[in-house]
Amino acid sequence: MSNATTKVPSHRWRAYARIAALAGWLALCLPLHLVAKWLTGTSRWPRRFLAGVARIVGVRPNVEGRPLCSGSFVIANHVTWLDIVVMAGTTGAAFVSKAEVKKVPLIGWLADQNRTVYVDRSARSESHDQIRRIGEALSRGQPLAVFPEGTTSDGKRLLPFRTTLLHAVAPPPEGAVVRPVALDYHEATEEIAWVGGEPGVENAMRVLGRRGSFRMTVKLLDPLPPHHNRKILAQQAHAAIAAALPSVHGSSAL
């Protein structure tokens, strides 16, 4: 992490300029979103807003593979908070998130607008209810994404996949399909990865203060064959994502 700022200097003034641009973008999108919801009950503005956020931050995403279909359950690797911004902006996916996110001012409200499904990973007694809510979310048609590593990695390896939430798609409900997705930040991986106990605000300021733009690729991989065993499903997803990321070193799927 220390040589990240040497390669690409990060300056507070640039971070504050981007924060101002993000605030202006939110002020523009918010009334349009609220009007759309009031008139039609739905809105495409969360996806448009997040796509604009990615661009302001400097991400230039490229999408490879067949588009996600209605009812796609996405299993993706997790490198940075930008994963959510980019995936929502490029694919329209909603996310399964830890319950604490809902309580974060503004961030929680924005997550609600994109139909986030909240789960308490520590409450094992609620797992059946979590599975039910994931199934309901898939029935709405919007792709739903999970990060089974449970935390961000350095982008050079895949952490073991947790399998609890995969109960909901082992086997998948009628009309649902499981899609692994590999998020590749290429040469910028080390510079934007959120690891090592770095405080969230510090990481955000460092990424926002980064000079210029950087490329990343959203690799929409082939659907996995349906399976009733969530551990096998996790192994298959882990192997597919690892194979699609040239910089990833081999590691255990579980």
Question: How is this fold's topology laid out?
Answer:
Layout: H1 4-7, H2 12-40, H3 45-57, E1 59-64, E2 72-76, H4 82-91, E3 94-98, H5 107-113, E4 117-119, H6 127-139, E5 144-146, E6 177-184, H7 189-192, H8 200-208, E7 214-220, H9 230-244
Parallel strand pairs: 1-7, 2-5, 2-6, 3-4, 3-5
Antiparallel strand pairs: 6-7
Helix pairs in contact: 2-3, 2-8, 3-4
Structure description:
- The chain has 254 residues and is an alpha/beta fold.
- It contains nine helices and seven strands; from the N terminus they run H-H-H-E-E-H-E-H-E-H-E-E-H-H-E-H.
- It has helices spanning 4-7, 12-40, 45-57, 82-91, 107-113, 127-139, 189-192, 200-208, 230-244; strands at 59-64, 72-76, 94-98, 117-119, 144-146, 177-184, 214-220.
- Strand 3, helix 5 and strand 4 (117-119) form a beta-alpha-beta unit.
Helix content: 40-55%
- Uncertain segments are 1-7
Number of strands: 7
- Count of alpha/pi helices: 9
Structural class label: alpha/beta
Quick one: biggest sheet? 7 strands, mixed
Q: Strand order of the main beta sheet, please?
A: 1-7-6-2-5-3-4
Radius of gyration: 18 Å
Short characterization:
The protein is of the alpha/beta class and 254 residues long. 41% of the residues lie in helices and 15% in strands.
What are the key terms here?
single chain, alpha/beta, 7-stranded mixed β-sheet, about 15% strand
